[in-house]
Amino acid sequence: MGMEVIRRASRTIFTSSPSTTTRTLLGSCRTSGPVRTPSPSRNRLQIRSMADSAFKKVQIQRDDATLDAYVVGKEDAPGIVVLQEWWGVDYEIKNHAVKISQLGPGFKALIPDLYRGKVGLDVAEAQHLMDGLDWQGAVKDIQASVNWLKANGSKKVGVTGYCMGGALSIASAVLVPGIDAAVPFYGVPPSELADPAQAKAPIQAHFGELDSFVGFSDVTAAKALEEKLKTSGVLYEVHIYPGCAHAFMNRSNEGIERRKSMGMSDEDQAAVDLAWSRFSSWMTHYLS
Question: Quick one: 270 exposed, middle or buried, by C-beta within 10 A (0-12, 13-18, 19+)?
Fold first, then answer.
């Protein structure tokens, strides 16, 4: 599975009109007209402002440059690097980081800004930003984030991420020294970036049964990941949630509306709660 698979899958799902191809990829999700993209609103700015207030902004050294990152949680807690979806560092990834900081014994969550301040406010912008991402550079950002956490009170560090960030979480378990556990959500890295069979940290992966990013986060991709992990020698779990589509963990009001605008109308709070419970148990076990 190459980098082009990620681009092709997202373009097919989100830029086509509701043709036969779109209906096939979306499975049971249906659209009744052209895909709608959410526009910026006062509500979005209010949500972002409330999320921002919980974080401390820090600068992390990477090679000869600096990287902005956002930290929330207890100073001396185990660290977790939280990796963004294709939207960038928006309200949803900050919601996840705040939630993570409050799980189990408490964690210090750090979000590195992989897009350097840019945020996609609609599908076209997010697609453009992800297409332009330097994936090898993102891995270096993650390494710098792990190093920063370990130098600032976290004895052990895990990594998690969603969609694009999920793929990078798996890549990190292969490529980034010092990671003690990984929990990716609905994303598998392209083979030219990282081979999960070479993973060096325990991985707990989460996917939705109705996810239609073919080759990236659909059930076939999840099962292929499981086969790779079987040969890696690391401990692993791969969970597939019945009736759930892509990005099923996004439960803010605006996140729900954004998913609906892209043809994903499933809502299963029980599945979300189960995934968070599994996440908490995994990270608590490996980071304590």
Answer: exposed
Alpha helices in the chain (DSSP H): 3-15, 20-26, 42-52, 91-101, 123-131, 135-151, 164-175, 219-230, 253-261, 269-287
Q: Give how far Cα 123 sits from Cα of 8, 12, 109, 199, 261, Å.
A: 14, 12, 26, 31, 10
Give the number of other Cβ atoms within 10 Å of residue 280's Cβ. Answer: 18
The DSSP symbol for 38 reads: P
Residues with Cβ within 8 Å of 258's Cβ and at least 6 positions away in sequence, in order, are 38, 250
Using one digit for the tens of pLDDT, what is the confidence trace for 70-124?
999 999 999 999 999 999 999 999 999 999 999 999 999 999 999 999 999 999 9
Sign of CA dihedral 83, 89, 90, 96: positive
Phi-psi category of residue 153: left, alpha or beta, with phi > 0 → left and psi -120 to 50 → alpha: left
Residue 66 DSSP SS3: strand
DSSP characters over 198-241: G--S-EEEEEETT---TTTTSHHHHHHHHHHHHTT-S-EEEEEE
Q: Which residues pair with 83 in a beta bridge?
A: 161
Q: Rounded to an integer, what distance in angstroms lies between the CA atom of residue 105 and that of residue 107?
A: 7
Q: What is the pLDDT of residues 260-269, one digit of tens each?
A: 999 999 999 9
Pairwise CA distance, residues 166 & 156, whole Å: 20
Total-model pTM:
0.86
Return left, alpha or beta for 13; rule: phi > 0 is left, psi -120 to 50 is alpha, else beta: alpha
Beta-strand relationship, 181-185 and 203-208 = parallel
